[in-house]
Every structure is written in C-alpha cells, then in structure tokens.
Design brief:
Elements lengths: L29 H14 L1 H14 L5 E5 L5 H9 L4 E6 L2 H14 L5 E5 L13 E7 L8 H10 L1 E17 L12 H19 L10 H7 L3 E12 L5 H17 L6 H11 L15 E11 L3
C-alpha cells in the first residue's frame, strides 16, 4: 500500500508500496488512505506481476497463500489470479481495508477461494487453520517493531517446503526530471532525505522497536529458513505518463507537501505548489516530462523438512 506515515519505502508518503501489514499501533488512518493505496498498487501492477511470475517458478501449485499486511487486497487478488488453484488469505490490522479486499475479490470472481483475517501482526497468524505454502509480506514487515521476531513468527506458519517472501528495500521512485525549469534542481533528492528521516522516526516509534541490520537474507536464514534468494523488479512508465500515473504522482506529491511543509525551504514549497497547481502548465497535471520509475526488492527463503 502506500500511506502517509513514512518514507522511501513506497507505500509511504507517496512513494510506492504495495500494501502494509499493520495494526492499530500507529497514527496512520489506513482506511482513509485506502483509495490511494489501491491506486498505487494498481499502478504498480506490472512490477507485482513480474515478482509473482518469478515466485511462481519456485512455488508450484501452492494450496494456501497468505498475504501478510494485505491492505485493500490488490496484490492479494493478483495472487488469486496468478495461482489459480490456490486459496488466498488476506491478513491485515485494518478491518475496513479487508472489507475492500473482499469486495475486490468478489468483483473479480475469486470469492470462493478468498478469505480475510483481521488482527495484530504477527500474533494473529496463530489463528491460521493451516500452514501456508507461500507467505508474502509486501512492504509490511517494516511496520512491525521487532522484525526478527516477526520473521520467526512468519516462518513458523509455513508448511514444510513452504516459501516466505518479503518485499523490502529497493530504490526511491522518480517522477520528475532533475531540472524542472523552475526552482532548484534535484527536488526529489531533497524529499528523499526527509522521507528517509521520517521512516527512521516511524520505526523508532513502533511498539517494541528493535534496531536491526537490514540484511534480509541473513534475517531469513536466522529464522531457520534456507535457500535465500533476492531479486529486484522495475516499474518503468516513461514520459509522457498516462493520466492515472499523473493522478498518482499528484497525490504522492500532495502527501509530501503536507507532511514536510515545515521542513522544506520556501523555494521548494513554492516549487511543489507550482507542480500541484492544475492551472499551471508546468504542473504534473500538464507537463510532458513526468514519468514513474521505481524498483522494489523481494527476498525469499524456504522452510525445509
């Protein structure tokens, strides 16, 4: 998903994100962000399709797929579409988002093999009736204070031979040319710094927050899993961006403008205001040079035995 509470990890502040796993322990109003989260995940669909194709070469005919931190279920439904014989369980801390997920699954014809489970992660996973053949956490793990303990909890819910896949890391997305023709060049680089700082604060403020070296393959191995693999996937929507990409860019920059109004200098605030003004020909609503370029990284490992 994408959401207003943090930084360069997609779903956040307007960067990408597929969807988050979370509960009620942050000040993020996930239900309020649902339309943005859905639009973001839908825009990033080509990237997720690549990732799921890659997963499908290792995970063959899974019976149960669990989407941890599913949000409104865009990617959950993509799992149902890709793995036609699987049951999909969307798990999230927000019941309003899961309601949207159920509605999406029903519209797409997956209701007979699509379920949801609401509760705090990772503890709610103890309620699973069956172990998972594939457990996916798409940019959701970083919303949990103790990521090492969460990975161990995820691993315990895998069937023998089951795969844990987490999407964490990658590159901050780019929407704008370095030099816009007004304001100081490299506006997005300065926004990246602010988002990175906000992400660090978000992590520090989580209940039970533990600092961890973000060596994801090592963390997966530490959870008792084997055969760790890593692969990054690219979303490349070149200029001139289609209308839905422009709408996403405008929504993302609006969130950043609201989040960092006091941290930006007057020149950058004025630049953002021009970029967001529908009546300005230099805005993202009209200029021909806006695009979306982003990369997300997936790490997988297997429970043997």
């Amino acid at each position: 998903m994408a959401h207003p509470e943090h930084g360069h990890h997609a779903q956040d502040g307007g960067h990408d994100h597929g969807h988050p796993a979370h509960g009620h322990h942050t000040d993020i109003d996930w239900a309020e962000t649902a339309p943005f989260l859905e639009a973001q995940a839908e825009l990033f669909n080509p990237l997720y399709e690549q990732a799921l194709f890659w997963l499908g070469k290792e995970v063959t005919e899974p019976g149960l797929i669990v989407d941890v931190g599913s949000g409104p279920g865009v990617v959950s439904c993509l799992f149902a579409e890709t793995f036609t014989g699987a049951r999909v369980l969307a798990v999230d801390g927000s019941e309003p988002l899961l309601e949207r997920a159920r509605g999406r699954a029903a519209r797409l014809g997956y209701a007979d093999r699509f379920d949801t489970l609401a509760g705090e992660l990772p503890d709610v996973l103890d309620e699973l009736d069956y172990p998972a053949d594939l457990l996916w956490a798409g940019r959701s793990l970083h919303h949990l204070g103790d990521q090492r303990a969460a990975l161990a909890a995820f691993a315990r819910r895998l069937a023998p031979g089951g795969t844990l896949a987490i999407m964490e890391g990658g590159l901050p997305p780019r929407y704008l040319p370095r030099d816009l023709g007004f304001g100081r060049p490299d506006l997005q680089a300065r926004l990246d710094v602010l988002e990175a700082e906000r992400f660090t604060r978000m992590r520090a403020d989580l209940p039970g927050s533990v600092d961890e070296v973000e060596d994801w393959p090592a963390l997966l191995t530490g959870a008792g899993l084997t055969h760790a693999r890593t692969r990054s996937f690219l979303l490349d929507l070149p200029a001139p961006a289609p209308d839905r990409a422009r709408a996403y860019i405008a929504a993302s920059l609006t969130r950043l403008r609201e989040a960092f109004a006091d941290a930006l200098d007057a020149d950058d605030r004025a630049t953002l205001d021009r970029l967001l003004d529908p009546d300005d020909r230099g805005s993202v609503h009209h200029r021909p040079d806006v695009f979306v370029l982003a990369a997300h990284t997936v790490h997988t490992a297997v429970r043997t035995g």
